[in-house]
Amino acid sequence: MPGWLYNMINVCVSLMGYYMAAFFIDNKLYGRKWMQQIGFLMDFIFFVIPAFNFKYYTSPEHIHAFQAMYFLSSFFNQFGPNAVTFLVAAEVFPTPIRATAHGFAAAVGKLGALLAAILYNYIDTQTKFYVVPWFGLAGMVLTWLFLPDTTGLDLKEQERRWYFLRSGRESEYHGPAVHPKHLSLWERIRGAGKYYDPELDYKRKVDEMRGDWEALVARQAAEKELQFEEDDLDEGLKHAHVRSYFERTSPMLFANEKKLGVGVTVLPGNGGEGRPGNPTDDIISPARFSDEMLPPPKADLGSKLSD
């Protein structure tokens, strides 16, 4: 069989691995971290075996087994680190340095390729197989120990966590980015997962969205604009039921309406708190109270606020 045909087979096997990576990379049962770990491990295995049995696998009667291992190493290289490394570098770093960090990671990879190209000119073929496998093993161990798993994680949550970290308030973030399944082993050893609390995080997200909404209302009031511009709204605030909830419960609006002399309707069982209302709207029917005054169900708001 001519050499170019072996190269063609190797390319086709590599493409199969790459397209399988695209299919499984967002699968929560496999995802980015497992894909990279297993890819590094399989590359280590398929290179270390012939390294210590080089004469056996290069003999004519066993050369096909050698070729099969080489093709499989190409498959797991694509169905592993080659597909994951550039993606993870775009997800795990905070936004202000993300482009720089991604570029630095890519430059280190190119430096490794350059170093290998130079080194291989001074060593024989078997020695190359002695050298190469350990990089795969090191990659697997480093991935297992230090890489967080961003599979299924909203990058907005990752950014929220970075905001609290940069502010020196790591313990105040309780969202899904510190769920143990998204943390690296090193982060779990450090105890980052102990801050995970979905109930506290839900309340904090509502407070954050309320603050964003009130700031937008105040700015629009100062500019005498009464309409919400879609581009000005946070993703959660684009939903009418979320804005309606803040309109009904915002202390800022209560104070403004009182200053303007607009009637405030007191809600039954609400501790005397009120909402802006029509001056003649002194009575709220039970049906209207149950349908309009209660906060939206957690499942509705939570679909936009939680993982």
Automatic annotation (TrEMBL):
Q: Where are the transmembrane segments?
A: 6-26, 38-57, 69-89, 101-123, 129-147
Region of interest called Disordered, as start-end residue ranges on this chain: 268-307
User: How does the protein associate with the membrane?
Assistant: Multi-pass membrane protein
GO molecular function per UniProt: transmembrane transporter activity
Q: Which domain of life is it from?
A: Eukaryota
Q: Which residues form the Major facilitator superfamily (MFS) profile domain?
A: 1-151
- Keywords from the UniProt entry: Membrane, Transmembrane, Transmembrane helix
Tell where it localizes.
Membrane
Q: What is its main location?
A: membrane
Q: An example Gene Ontology cellular component term from the record? A: membrane
Pfam families, per database record: Sugar_tr (PF00083)
Instruction: List the protein's name.
Output: Pi-transporter A-1
